[in-house]
Structure formats: structure tokens, C-alpha cells
Amino acid sequence: MRGHGDRWPFVAAATTAVVSIGLLAAAVAGGWLGMDVGAGGGFCEAARDALVRQPANTWSNLGFVVAGLLIALRATSAGRPPRWLATGFACLVVLLGPGSAAMHATQTAAGGRLDVFSMFLVASFAASYVVLRVVRGGAIVFIACFVAGLVLCEIAERVPGEVPLFMTWANVAFGGLLLAAAVGEVALHRRPGPRTDLRWGVAALAALATAFAVWSMAKDGGPLCRPHSLLQGHAFWHLMCAVAAWCLYRMWASQRRMDASGQHHRGSHEQSGRR
């Protein structure tokens, strides 16, 4: 049975969802984010003359909120990642939803910044959690790497020029951090000690690869672009990225220790959870 302490991740993620969605709704209704400058307009969906400019690309971001809440539901005080990290990741995944929706709903510059920054938060988290386990460090190591990842992404966002396929250097930095995290996970799996179930990692990469392929073809002028349809490739990108975040957490939570014969055993935290 889950104790009261184990409810904290879900309470935190649910509070994050309610507050962030509430603030976004007020910002959209009140025009707090500024004027429509066409931010996100390159992702095919035609802007409507309505409060929500791109409905499909906006509402599909609820997938991140659902994924974050599901992650929080599985987080326990005795599990992996540690509860404070699992709670943080769940909240960041939740924030991806309102962050991205802010751009697609308003097409404002401020909305665009919220969209990109929410992406940076999750990518920096994934890379930092790998470093934490590689060096067997603690909270200070994680926080230092997390801040460094954000700084790197912010610098990349300010580099001018368009990048083929990726569009911006910010997207390159985002993808680079995720690639570094994937390489680190494979390296950790090959090292003696606790192991994760890489099948979840493969599922996360497959979801991201599929999402990226559709993302690439669903931009303005792409073969999958249907500006006035409610079936948008960019909306599919949001949903598949939410699936990838869920799979990534499941990989982290699958950590097992290995005995001398190479067999998987559940850690003590999992054994105690059965009692």
C-alpha cells in the first residue's frame, strides 16, 4: 500500500498541471503574452480567427500533462529515480504541455519562448540524470549539470541562421542533449552494477524517431502538411514525444542490480514494496 509520503509526486504534478494550465488560460484570454507574431506558424496548421489560433497543435499538448501525471503515479519514496528526481521529472513533463500550447494557442514571441524553454528543461534533465549515475554523484552534481545544459541551450538559441532539417540551433541543442543521454544510458547498461531495461529506452527512441520523421514532413510545404485539417503532423509530434517521456521514465524506474552470474534481481526498494 502506498503511504502518504508516496502521494507527494502526484500531488506536486497535479498542482503543477492545475496552476500552469490555469495561468495559460488566463494569459490567452487576457492577451498577456503579447501580439500574434506568427510564432509556430511554420508548423503547417493554419491560424484560426479565434482565441486559440492553432487548435490541433494546441490541444494535443494535453498528452504531456497526462504523461507527467502517469509518471507521478508510479513514483514512490523507495523507487528509482529517487523520489525528488522522479517528482521533478513528472512536473517538467507536465509543463511541456502548457509551455508548447502557449506558442500554438497565441503565436506570440513570449509563447514561443515558453515552448522552447520547456523543451530545454526536459532535455537537460535527461542528460543530467545520466551524468549523475555515471559519476555516482548527488544533488549538487545533478543541479550543476542541469543548469549547464540550460545555459548551453540558451546560448544555442541565440545563434543566428537556419539549420537544415532542424530549423534552429536551439533544436540542435535539444536533440544533442537527448542524444548524449541515449549514449550515456547505453554506456551505463554495459557497466557492472545496476541495470535498466533498455527495451523501454528503445521504445522511447522509436517514439522520438517516428515523431521527428513526421515533424520533418508536416512543416509548411511538406508532404504531410494540410493547413486546415484537425489531423496535424505536429500534433502527432506532441503525442509521440509524450509517449517517449513516459517510456524514458519507465526505463529509469526499471533499474535492477545484477548478481555474479549476470541475472537480474529486484533491488531492495522493490522487495520492500511487496510486503
Word description of this protein:
By secondary structure, this protein is mainly α. The chain has a single domain (9-34, 46-254), classed as Rhopdopsin 7-helix transmembrane proteins (Up-down Bundle). The chain has helices at 8-30, 55-59, 62-74, 83-106, 109-134, 139-157, 169-190, 198-217, 233-253, 268-273; strands at 257-258, 264-265. A two-stranded antiparallel ribbon has the order 1-2. A hairpin with a 5-residue loop joins strand 1 and strand 2. The chain starts with 7 loop residues before the first helix and ends with a helix. Mean pLDDT is 89; it is low at 257-275.
Q: Layout of helices and strands, plus pairs?
A:
Elements: H1 8-30, H2 55-59, H3 62-74, H4 83-106, H5 109-134, H6 139-157, H7 169-190, H8 198-217, H9 233-253, E1 257-258, E2 264-265, H10 268-273
Antiparallel strand pairs: 1-2
Helix pairs in contact: 1-3, 1-4, 3-4, 3-9, 4-5, 5-6, 5-7, 6-7, 8-9
What is the compact description of this entry?
With 275 residues, the chain is mostly helical. Helix content is 65%, strand content 1%.
The counted number of beta strands is 2
Count helical runs: 10
Q: Beta-strand level of the residues, as a percent range? A: under 5%
What is the third-level CATH name, the topology? Answer: Rhopdopsin 7-helix transmembrane proteins
General shape: globular
- The first-level CATH class is given as Mainly Alpha
Give the N-terminus to C-terminus distance in angstroms.
9 Å
Structural category = mainly alpha
The SSE string, one letter per element, is HHHHHHHHHEEH
CATH architecture field = Up-down Bundle
Overall domain count? 1
Transmembrane segments: 56-73, 85-104, 116-132, 139-157, 169-188, 200-218, 230-249
Pfam families: Ceramidase
Organism: Flexivirga aerilata
GO molecular function: hydrolase activity, acting on carbon-nitrogen (but not peptide) bonds, in linear amides; metal ion binding
